[in-house]
UniProtKB/TrEMBL annotation:
It comes from Marivirga aurantiaca. Keywords: Aminotransferase, Cytoplasm, Glutamine amidotransferase, Repeat, Transferase. GO terms for cellular component: cytosol. It is an enzyme of class 2 (transferase). It catalyses: D-fructose 6-phosphate + L-glutamine = D-glucosamine 6-phosphate + L-glutamate. The active site is at K342 (for fru-6p isomerization activity). Its main location: cytoplasm. One of its GO terms (biological process) is carbohydrate metabolic process. Catalyzes the first step in hexosamine metabolism, converting fructose-6P into glucosamine-6P using glutamine as a nitrogen source. Homodimer. The chain holds residues 265 to 610 of 611 of the full protein. GO terms for molecular function: carbohydrate derivative binding; glutamine-fructose-6-phosphate transaminase (isomerizing) activity. This is Glutamine--fructose-6-phosphate aminotransferase [isomerizing].
Length: 346
């Protein structure tokens, strides 16, 4: 098989298997800093990766919109690690950001879905996500696959660096194995999500809130709603609400709060109280078995619990379903949203 990621893609019983970062594994492990460049949903995956790399590997990470990075004069030094994330592998902004980083001597690693795509050819090395073809324009399963791959890379680096205890490393790897079953279970919220969609399909605005690892999930939930339902939606870190968006909240405003049980649980409970005190309609994504938040909010969607860092893969599912059902109910073409291209090549 022709290997666009430098000979790392191998055939195993006729199947494609994960490629990898081998030649540059030491450079990545010893990096002083990582810069992630991506657009849209892939940028949100990059934000989750920032939290994971900083927590697990203690390497400082910056996440840049490729569409900004390419037009400014970023500080990139010889040997810096730049990771480009893309579903299509053809996004012009991401490709230009990679070329710019390479011209400044960076090692450019790719995470992308389409075998043989331009981004896989421009990367020094990289990993395919193998999520299968995205039928629609909006990225969905590719996001989950990007998170999986980025988590696996961060775990390997943390293990090599010794920034994560062996027992924790093993337990996270074991937890990662449970994610497919947890995602399947999250998909079973479909009927319940559809009923909620029916009630909010005519809303003009939505707010999405999350803290920690669930903050990028809030951004991604809002982006999916904008992309396929054409409803204005904003994602915010829940703690930022008091710095502005709180002014938007009234009985007309649906607020989706990603409030799974994690280290910021008590804080998100206070944020929900703040929204309810202003009569906002709260749709909460909670961990299975939560008995507190359902008593405070208007609608609850339960997903299986997991480690904080892995929760984005599970918690994003009901948000994708919500956007999907609202879009269908509004008569929007979910596969071909207006004004959007599958790969933005200009
Ligand atoms: C980036 C992206 C997608 C979005 C839409 C437009 O694409 O912004 O996240 O859903 O398809 O392009 P990619 O670089 O991940 O292919």
């Amino acid at each position: 098989i022709k290997d666009c990621f430098r000979g790392r893609l191998i055939a195993n019983d006729g199947k494609l298997v994960l490629g990898g970062i081998r030649e540059y594994a030491n450079a990545l492990t010893n990096a002083n800093r990582i810069v992630i460049v991506a657009c849209g949903t892939s940028w949100h995956a990059g934000l989750v990766a920032e939290y994971i790399f900083e927590e697990f590997c203690r390497i400082p990470v910056e996440v840049e919109y490729a569409s900004e990075f390419r037009y400014r004069n970023p500080i990139i030094s010889e040997g810096d690690i730049v990771i480009a994330i893309s579903q299509s592998g053809e996004t012009a902004d991401t490709l230009a950001a990679m070329e710019l980083a390479k011209s400044k001597g960076a090692i450019v690693l790719g995470v992308c879905n389409v075998v043989g795509s331009s981004i896989s050819r421009v990367s020094h090395e990289g990993v395919y996500t193998h999520a299968g073809p995205e039928i629609g324009v909006a990225s969905t399963k590719a996001f989950t696959a990007q998170l999986t791959v980025l988590t696996m890379i961060a775990l390997r680096v943390a293990h090599r660096k010794g920034t994560m205890a062996e027992q924790r490393y093993r337990s996270l790897l074991a937890e990662l194995e449970t994610i497919p079953a947890k995602v399947e279970k999250a998909l079973k919220t479909d009927d319940q999500v559809k009923k909620i969609a029916e009630l909010f399909k005519d809303a003009r605005n939505f707010l999405y809130l999350g803290r920690g690892y669930n903050f990028p999930v809030a951004l991604e939930g809002a982006l999916k709603l904008k992309e396929i339902s054409y409803i204005h939606a904003e994602g915010y870190p829940a703690a930022e609400m008091k710095h502005g968006p709180i002014a938007l909240i009234d009985e007309e405003m649906p607020v989706v709060v990603i409030a799974t049980r994690d280290s910021s649980y008590d804080k998100i409970v206070s944020n929900i109280q703040e929204v309810k005190a202003r009569k906002g309609k709260v749709i909460a994504i909670v961990s299975e078995g939560d008995s507190l938040i359902p008593t405070m909010v208007d609608f609850t969607i339960e997903v299986p619990g997991t480690h904080d860092a892995l929760m984005p893969m599970v918690a994003t599912i009901p948000l994708q379903l919500l956007s999907y059902h609202i879009a269908v109910m509004r008569g929007c073409n979910v596969d071909q949203p207006r004004n959007l291209a599958k790969s933005v090549t200009v």
